[in-house]
Amino acid sequence: MQERPSLETIEVETAPSPQAAVIWLHGLGADGHDFEPVVPQLVRGRERAWRFVFPHAPVQAVTINGGMRMRAWYDIRGLERTATEDLEGFQRSDASVRALIEREAARGIPSSRVVLAGFSQGGAVALYSGLRYPQRLAGLMALSCYLPLRGALHECTEANAGVRIFMAHGLSDGVLPLALGAASRRALEARGYAVEWHQYPMAHSVCPAELEDIREFLFRVLA
Q1: How many other CB atoms are there within 10 angstroms of residue 192's CB atom?
Q2: What is the pLDDT of residue 84?
Q3: Exposed, middle or buried: residue 78 (CB in 10 Å: 0-12, 13-18, 19+)?
Q4: Is residue 120 flagged as an active site residue?
């Protein structure tokens, strides 16, 4: 059984007694504060009672950055297709994500009212963990990222075979090229997943139009 480390988190509740939760994983080298400012753009005033949970990834050495230590969900050994992926890192992050989902259940929010989201490296973890979670989730959001460990999709659970997936990518993303995200989308669709795909005239970032589409997706899956 994987160890389930406790992660520090930033939490924003849009109204008292939240009835749903969005767990949002940041990208490489950032922290849980990275997407905290977008909450008022997604939930205006107190129109919904949701809890946004922004965990901090642990600090570790990252091979592709010369072994520099930074917040990371897993090690990146290379971006070429032949590079070995950090399975143990994904498994550790998966254990942490599961603990966060279970913490929401203990606070009265079942997994069916939880959206697992992530940007870049965090988006890869959201796909890895969300597709393997043993209970149904409300939705997955994978932003400017890729599908990791494609050869192990047989590990994905039946519980989330029909989960709604929002994927978004920048047309001029110079960090993770659009083709990487598009190939990930096709791999998911080939396995029968329904992917809602969006692309925007932006680099490796988020933009106002994307936030509007994210808002609409959240209001749909957390209706």
Answers
A1: 8
A2: 85
A3: exposed
A4: yes
pLDDT in tens, 56-114: 999 999 999 999 999 999 999 877 666 789 999 999 999 999 999 999 999 999 999 99
| pLDDT tens figures, 138-196 | 999 999 999 999 888 889 999 999 999 999 999 999 999 999 999 999 999 999 999 99
The torsion angles phi and psi of 125, rounded to 5 degrees, stand at -70, -40
Catalytic position from the list 26, 75, 94, 204: 204
Tokens read off for 199: 């692309």
Angle, alpha carbons 10-175-203 (nearest 5°): 80
205 catalytic, yes or no? no
What is the spatial distance between Cα 200 and Cα 204, in angstroms, rounded to a whole number? 10
Could you tell me the end-to-end alpha-carbon distance of the chain, in angstroms, rounded to an integer?
35
| pLDDT recorded at residue 7 | 85
Per-domain residue ranges of the chain: 9-221
9-221 has which fold? Rossmann fold (3.40.50)
Q: Characterize the bridge pairing of strands 50-55 and 20-25.
A: parallel
What pLDDT was estimated at residue 198? 98
Q: Are 112 and 137 in contact (CB under 8 A)?
A: yes
Enter the tokens of residue 51: 């809890």
The answer to whether residue 204 is catalytic is yes
Among 111, 120, 129, 184, which one carries the catalytic annotation? Answer: 120
